[in-house]
From TrEMBL:
Residues 26-395 form the Aminotransferase class I/classII large domain. One of its GO terms (molecular function) is transaminase activity. InterPro entries: Aminotransferase_I/II_large, Kynurenine-oxoglutarate_AT, PyrdxlP-dep_Trfase, PyrdxlP-dep_Trfase_major, PyrdxlP-dep_Trfase_small. It comes from Brevibacterium samyangense. This is Pyridoxal phosphate-dependent aminotransferase.
Amino acid sequence: LVAADGTVGETIFGQMTALAATHGAVNLGQGAPGTDTPGFLVEAAAEAMRSGMNQYPPAQGLPALREAVVTQRAKEHGHHVTPEQVLVTVGATEALTAAVLALLPRGGTALLFEPFYDGYAAAVAAAGAEIVTVPVLPTPEGFAPDWDVFDARIAAGVDLMIVNSPHNPTGMVLGREDLLRIHAGAVSTDAWIVTDEVYEYLVFDGREHLSLAALVDDPGRIVTVSSAGKTFNTTGWKVGWCIAAPEVREAIQAVKQFLTFVGSGPFQPAIARALTAHTDFGAQNRDSLAARRDVLLDALAEVPGARIHRPGAGYFALVDFAEVPGPAVEHGGPGRDGAGPDAFALNAHLTAEYGFTGIPVSGLCRTGSPAAAHYASTIRYSFCKAPEDVERAAAAIRRFG
Ligand code: PMP
Ligand code: GLN
């Protein structure tokens, strides 16, 4: 597990991909799309290569892409920024890491909502800072942060927080009040806020993604991060960006130049075109994902005792196997409080015997944390796979159930 304990090893995604491959199982682990990017994007990148855009692009990113981000922010969020505020990065991952390294003081404190995308903890560890967490827990309506813990963390003092909505892995979509409450907490402790909005277009069932920087009068402490990977099924192109006040953007760019210097040139004009002319693809992608989500959830609903969380957004569904009788408990061994199965052991069993693999959610938590205990029997399944793989996984799940 990378850096959830401050150590670096193979990511949970790499480990579970290897597990699936060993058994020829359907890999519902890593959130890697099984459907391709649209042809118009491939053509746009090829055209950029043919026209000679094959050398280092400008350090801050191609002006056309920065302008496209400005247009997209205004259109989708009513958030008016300038190209000077935009920095193009190698995926959201680099934007997050560079922002953390630029803004979080050594020995400082970063607040993460747990479970969390593993790269956050790695970035905080690289910055030489401490992590405190706020659990994200199921509620009757979906998922929500534990606000009492949030208030206590703020009272103790925080230098930076990473806010991920829509949230990986729970699919939680924070509302206006939630976001403003987080902002007020940051103001009171004078913390930076880095928002990770990579799933901004993939919000289901009429929900709405709200971007914090668009909701407040003074977004000066906010760094907004997004990426083209999820929106356009281009996770392999690694085109992301962040938006911040000009001097904050400069500080992040100062770090970025020594991480990767610049990002891939020919993909930037292609994403620029997609962001301005083809955001309807984001909506199509969302609808197609929602359909695959439902295929998976229908099959999971047939597993007696499985507690299924219908995600409001993103790539993932969480299933708690704590109450599943029979093989789950026999093969999973004791999990939470000795009651349910341990998700790591159960996931290995389901992979070997039934042919489907997910990510144990405690692998996205810090070892021994309250969130890790809460999610001890919970597995994350990704439904962004090819429709035939989702069908194959659904059949495998039905064999188990
Ligand atoms: N943030 C979250 C919440 C993610 O799930 C991912 C997964 N890819 C990333 C960031 C990384 O995005 P990118 O591939 O653009 O670096
Ligand atoms: N974000 C994806 C996930 O959560 C995977 C990204 C990665 O492998 N680093 O599964």
